[in-house]
Amino acid sequence: MEPVVSKLYNAAVFQLRMPSLSVATLLLLASINSACTHDPSPVSPPPTAENSIAAFLTNAERQSETDNQRREIQRALRDMLDKSAVELPQARYADYAGTANTWSITELLQHYFVPNPPSALDEKRSFEDLGDPAARAAIQHQLDEVSRTLQ
Fold first, then answer.
1. Closest C-alpha to 70, from 62, 60, 82
2. b or e along 103-135 (b: 16 or more beta carbons within 10 Å of the residue's beta carbon)?
3. Which of 139, 114, 117 is nearest to 126 (CA)?
4. What is the CA angle 65-137-70, rounded to 5?
5. Which of 13, 46, 90, 142 is most buried by a 10 A CB count?
6. pTM above 0.85, yes or no
7. Residue 146, pLDDT above cutoff 80
8. Beta bridge partners of 84
9. What is the CA radius of gyration of the chain?
10. SS3 63
């Protein structure tokens, strides 16, 4: 028996005036000792940050009710592929009711897409991530899907 476990065992036996401890209690004491003396493994560095656009749009469920909404989503996705990261923040899109120039691109995405798994969309970072191949693939996939429903 390890010295600390032995001391704990002896203390429990003599102070509690118990002739013996159950095997389960002994195992519990050994486990506690092991956990207390175990050197934790070094903390691994966080994985490289995933592309915010790809994380948000890959497997996302699009929720739209009308063709006008789907056309606005289609326009926004095309802009994401065609416009620069400087131009895109200035672009505005119609809201649910069709009121023009209401939403930014990130607001439109957050209103019409439910990411799976849940994912936040940081406005500043999303513009930086637009040129990444994973982001472009996710955007293209969603564009293909919404375009298919409009045919």
1. 62
2. bbbbbbbbbbbebeeebebeeeebbebbeeeeb
3. 139
4. 15
5. 142
6. no
7. yes
8. none
9. 29
10. coil
Structure tokens at 129: 């991530």
What are the residue ranges of helices labelled H in the chain? 3-15, 23-37, 52-57, 67-82, 105-112, 123-129, 133-150
Residue 103 dihedral angles phi and psi, to the nearest 5°: -105, 145
Q: Which amino acid is at 68?
A: N
Give kind and range of the element (H or E) at residue 114.
Answer: strand 113-114
C-alpha–C-alpha distance, residues 78 and 66, integer Å: 18
Q: How confident is the model at residue 120 (pLDDT cuts 50, 70, 90)?
A: confident
What sign does the CA torsion over 125, 127, 131, 135 have? Answer: positive
Give residue 63's identity as a one-letter amino acid code. Answer: Q
Percent of the chain residues topping a pLDDT of 90: 62
CA gap 107, 127 in Å, rounded: 13
DSSP H or E stretch at residue 113: strand 113-114
Amino acid present at 27: L
Cis ω before 45 (30° cut-off from 0): no
